[in-house]
């Protein structure tokens, strides 16, 4: 059993080392550096998350039998062994909040990364599925309002939590999850010379809500001089390429779309790429594309930290802090608006409009973690 004064950080299942896991590791690292004991609590740890930690990390895997009843029972048994005056746990996400409530936990905190409007299956959800979400929202709301703090990363998620759960969430803006990266203010932007290739990059799961099809159709439009806002095919202005990093079932379909648009030779699907192999792609990128709908959008922060301008959607929560800078082109509407804004962003890169302009002030990992610790009264 962990230290009775340790702060529990509950994530339902650790399948791979992704964005949520990286953020929780950043929080645990902050706690460790400030001599505040903590541990990660999970049902199953499939990736041995401790191997990614640069500090002593305690991981408690409950390993219950499959099924929600067994999971909730294991969670209830774990917390029944802790003192009533022990630090309240912090849940990571929607499902952990649901299970914590069902397990009888009260006064727990929650990092609400995504609300139901951001779930990938929302458009195809059946009436039964919608009813299930409505019931889950009601249960979660009961737990979130039981005395703990709900923490989100953006104004959008705060509004969603008020609507879905009847709770006023607090905002803690997340920093880039690359401990080795520096702030954008100290990054060196990549200059684009007249004969240089123009490299665009997107890093995400290849899912419908990431709007990669929007990117491809916009680029296809920029190659048609008759309709291009650039008044000439983009390829006559720069030898452009788009690198797409991430796994997903839509890769074959999107590959065919790129071919049908006549841009297949310029679009490269890399699939999963390790952090080590991803660094050169970031290092050669002139523009990062992220028109997705998402709760925050850490890749935009990490790109700016590396001195790479971004194009993103207003429905990405990180856009809250990126509205008034030449380093970010913000799309507010639908797909029809993407090609003109992409042309504007590309034009800015070719002209170097962002060079010599101070990058936006960005949060750091430690600033985010400190804010979370304060909101959880864990200090």
User: In the CATH hierarchy, what is the superfamily of the largest domain?
Assistant: Glycogen Phosphorylase B
**SS content category:** alpha/beta
Instruction: Give the C-alpha Rg.
Output: 22 Å
Total strand segments: 15
Per CATH, the architecture of the largest domain is 3-Layer(aba) Sandwich
Helix content: 25-40%
Q: What's the mean pLDDT score?
A: 89
**CATH top level assignment of the largest domain:** Alpha Beta
How many separate structural domains? 2
Strand order of the largest sheet: 5-3-1-6-7-8-9
Order of helices and strands: EEHEEEHEHEHEHEEHHEHEHEHEEHH
- N→C terminal distance: 22 Å
Low-confidence stretches: 178-186
| Largest sheet report | 7 strands, parallel
- Would you give the CATH topology of the largest domain? Rossmann fold
Net shape: elongated
How much of the residues is beta strand, in percent? 5-15%
User: Treating each run of at least 4 consecutive H or I residues as one helix, how many helices?
Assistant: 12
